[in-house]
Predict the structure.
Amino acid sequence: MLTSILGARLRWYQADGWVFDPVIVGPDIIEYTLKEGPHAGRHAIQHTYYQRVAPGIETTAWYEESGAVLHITWYLETQTSHRFAALPAWLAKDMTVYRGDNQDPAFVEKIRKLSSQHQDGPRHILSDDGYFVVL
């Protein structure tokens, strides 16, 4: 049984066809590639805040360069998850603009420009359940 999300390498499935593969969770980073979903091809390394809230239940939360805020609750025994995300209105309207790598300065500049030119709210809220497998 998985004893911590830290150090895990995952394939993570969320509602509406989102598949993240791989996802690597460290104590202060999460690295992911979106394999399938509205902005398939996205790769990102994000600073994350981690907390063990109870035995077998851990959370990660982070802020993306688009302004999106994410909070994931990982249920280790069942290998399930709950995602809460607040997406900027402009990003929710066309997620394909988020295909790219946040380690690429040109991509980050493009996202910052879009963020400054478009309306942030009302935020699009995702609150859904998923599951993951350890690779």
Notes: The chain is about 15% helix and 50% strand.
